[in-house]
Amino acid sequence: MSDPSGNFQPPPQPPLPETTTPAPRPTKLRIVAIPLFVIGLVVCGLGIPKIIPGGIAGGAALAFLGIVFFALSFAPLPVIEGSVDAPMSPIAKLLGIFYEPSNVFRNLRAHPNWVAAYLFVTILSVIYTVAFTQRLTPERIVNYRVDKVAEMPAPFTPPPERIEAMRTEGIEQLKNPIQRVFMVSSTFVAAFCFTAFLAALYMLVVLVFGGRMNYWQSLAVMFYAAVPIITIQKLLGLVLLYLKSPDDVHPILGQETLVQDNLGVLVSPANHPVIFVLASAIGLLSFYSLWLKGTGLRYGGTRVSSGSAWGVAITLWVLGTLAITALTALFPQFIS
Q1: How far apart are CA 59 and CA 54, in angstroms?
Q2: Both 36 and 164 in a single domain?
Q3: pTM here?
Q4: Where residue 309 falls among pLDDT bands split at 50, 70, 90?
Q5: Is residue 5 one of the residues assigned to a domain?
Q6: Residues of the domain holding 50
């Protein structure tokens, strides 16, 4: 029956679904990615007929970095609700990470800018590597490395003719100016790709521990957490490199740094390589790095508790130490 009063009221409309603004993408990376890929292909092509010495490996590295940048340009940036602080300048972050890391990581949470830290740690690494090569000479570094390759157990041992070719090519690579340029570019590629992999790994483990973290937040935390460690290792390493006799510097162990702040100084790497690696993981810089990563994950993530941050940092530190120890057990001759 119809309403006798005639006051018909239509039912209210259902609420409209809430619209969310899609997260922005770092499309500016493509401006760098595409030229890198093209340049890498050209250099690689010129390296095939040996117009550019070492062009195959150097060009392939540049092209690969271009592919990585292009792929990451589709990764969404974090969307932070509410008011956020203005982004800190690169200089303020590079200095502040030493005396106010919590504030730096908080700022990176909303503004995960990583380029300054990436360039800083890579340039320091390149400076130390160049000085290390000049101080020890290419001949000693390559001969030591190739001799250790020749000591590898079968089936890893290359044939004798290949070993001598490795020796000749290695010395030429460290002496040729063009190939040294490609070695520098390869350092930039390796530094970014390794840190990008670590950032993805840390982000995934944060999610497993119940936290929330954007990939770019994780990448920025990884780069800035490395700034104090790399600064101490490389700058003090440079000082020690010229204070010590080149004959007292290990051609492989000294390639990263000469700073000995861990328990590895109590163990002979030649007699006990596995114990040496385990002992080297226990030191001041190791714990400082662990603290920086834990702090960075806590303040740089969206919803990461203190317990989750430390759980992630300690878990991956233990796994990394075990992985390095396993490699040392397989190839102990390289640190003997």
Answers
A1: 8
A2: no
A3: 0.87
A4: very high
A5: no
A6: 22-77
